[in-house]
Amino acid sequence: MSSVYPVPSTRASGLLASTRLLTQMQSDYLDLLRLQSQVSTGRRITLPSEDAPAAQRAIILQRLLEQKTQTRTNLETTNSYTSASDAAIGSVSSLLINAKATALGAATNLVSDSDRSAAAADIDSAIRQLTQLANQKFRDRYLFGGSRTGSAPFATDGSYLAYRGNEGVLRSFADLGLLYESNKSGADVFGTYSQQVTGGSDLNPVLTANTSLSELRGGLGITRGSIAISDGTTTSIIDISRAATIGDVAAMIEANPPSGRTIKARVTSTGLELQLDTAGGGGLTVKEVGAGTTAAQLGIFHPISTGTGPLVGHDLNPRLTPTTKLADVLGARAIAVIRSDGKDNDIILEAREVGAADNGVTVQFVDEDLLQAGPALQAGFETASYSDTPVASRAALSFTGFNNNLLLTASTPGLAFNNVEIELVDAGAIGNNATVNYDSSNKRLTIGIDSTGATEVQAIIDALATEGTFTASYDPSDPVDGGFSPTATVSAVDIGTVRGNTGNSGGDANTIYVHIDPGATTANQVVAALANDPTISARFDVRLDLTDKSLPINAGLAPVSINATGTTIEGRGEPLDLTSGLRIVNGDQTYVIDTSSAQTVEDLINLLHGSGANVLAEINANGTGINVRSLLSGANFSIGENGGTTATQLGIRSFTGSTALSDLNFGRGVETTTGTDFTIRRRDGYDLGVDVSGATTVQQVIDRINGDVNNQDPATQVIARLAAIGNGIELIDTNSAGIATLAITQAFGSSAAADLGLVPPGSTTTTAATSGSNQVLTGRDTNPQEVLGVFNTLLRLRDAIGTGDLGEIERLSAQLDVDLNRVNFARSDLGQRGQALDSISARLDDDEIQLKDSLSKEIDVDLIEAITNLTARQASYEASLQLTGQTFRLSLLDYL
Description:
The chain is 31% helix and 21% strand. By secondary structure, it is of the alpha+beta class. The chain has a four-stranded antiparallel sheet. A four-stranded mixed sheet has the order 16-24-15-26. Helix 3 (113-134) runs antiparallel to helix 15. The protein is flat. The chain starts with 13 loop residues before the first helix and ends with a helix.
């Protein structure tokens, strides 16, 4: 900014005049340069500092213009790929129409062998042309490979055609914020996948502390809000917005109980379980905060007090994920939590196998000192044992003197006689006798002896036996007692001083007893004792409950409570058979999948993908199971057992008892007749007539064979079942003293036996093979799956025309219509995209004009105004020069 010079009131000095003239001249010169720059560049500003607000707006507009320029490039590329795909699909439609005409011409018995061969050759030619179209490239990218554009999507595999692409799509920005698909996958156009092989199994994962909140409620997740937990007096607001797992939520609840109370929050196999302490106050309630729904989503919304009982949450239904353990998908392991007072001492006992078999096992701590007269058990020497039958309560009595220690045992095993107090009392001068009395109300057993010490130990044993509640035997645990002597007396000094208690020594069936040193034995020592017993460790995993720790280094260091106990619950379902594996048939090949190494769902999927069986495995959209599809066109595809139950349990066996008869033989079903459809001849020569009419599923057919009143004698019964290896119906005759061979004969007018796979196609009878002492007849799989697509239809049509299979030609002709509709739909979708792209292109033109206009207004100069200003500034500059020249030529006379 130019300096401001005052107008002097006295004579102006030469210095002042020259300074003002030079300043004016420099200002004119700078303005002249600026105007010359504007005229030469057409820009009003060249630096942001010249007009900061306008420069900022111009930068934004310029960036938008650059982005629009790039989106136009994307748009043109997308349009070119769309046009190329449309042209290729147009050729596909023409080939399919011609194939349809060929199929219709061959669907008659009047066609000669030469004409049939020519028709098959036409279909074969169409297959080759379609393969070329399906593998067409544009700009060095395969059009129909999905997102796999670097390799040919279709490849010959023997006499079949395999799809190597995927269902992915390529997207690019057709406009700011607008992603647009630029391709159609081979699956969209040609059809490249079979029906999904899915069963009825809901692979419902077990909830664990590490389960992510986003996986709960079938994948809907949990709203990260707050919940209000109250005991009726005080309320704690818990914000779970930072929780990542359900275990985090449980930890937050435990860390923020209502004031003065404690809460135990446990993650069960299905949901949350909350337990408020019984120290006093009201019962537990869980409510929403404001209009939230977090508590309800967590399954613990309970606005009414639960009292002192636990609040058991609803099933949170976690979805299947790649990291889900396969061992946790068909049920839950039985689990018990043994909680002791305080922190750092809770223990978890969990079954190693899924299922209900390990439910109801109780863990019980026993004070070993109560059970022996010998030296007390020291911490670090704990023992554990399991009993599948009830155990009687016991207590030791250590008398003064030698040879007289006793071990009392309740006559009735179980819990009823636990915590019974045993006391030695004065019965007066009774001599060598004893009295016994049991007070069931107060659980107190009194033994009266002679007041002068004349009672012998055998007298006490006899008196206990006569009373009947307890029996007694010598206790040899004290090595200094010297061994049993029935005549050893019990001193009068023991009266009132010798006492015993059965404690927790008795128990019901299925109880684990851990003998401890009360007040000293720690949780770590209990865990070690349980793990050291081979019977227990083979069945259960035992570990510390780390949610109970005060600090990580303190976990397990606190003593357990003698009365702490826990019983295994929540075991359900069945273990998944991963040792047998799967058997996949695809085309001419059978693939045995060894699943024994699979630990997670992702492991199983990788095994299937790496098997070479040309299948695609994935978690279904609902997150409840696994889908498996074939990628091999022209081939029969099935998944069966390999001697176990793996496929059935995973829900991916393609031939099951629930398979509808109407679905067999590619939808042609089972043709029956009135009365007997086929006859089974047993090894004893008896014929069983089987009527299939009215049956709707494979299992109903099996039940009719097994349920025949003439087939119920175990000595001669023919057992029908699903095949143990592969698929199909299997018949087993275990009668070793037969006079005939197990066989099936189809009845006249019925094709049910063939349609069920029990007799070969074109035959009316078949016989069994001998397997050891049994005869086994295994039917074939009549429910194979197939790829639903163009190539599968044409490959099968070519073969059907060649063999003259009119029924198959008719079925495939109808399938061609489905294929043609798919192709036409794909083409129409591309046409709609093309129209949309044209519309977007026109809008981009308008946007570009508007943006350039706005940018021009911000930074471009008005040339007329600039030239006018330039002329004026030139005149001003010339005047300044002239005046400066005159000023500097002044003489001394001018000054005077």
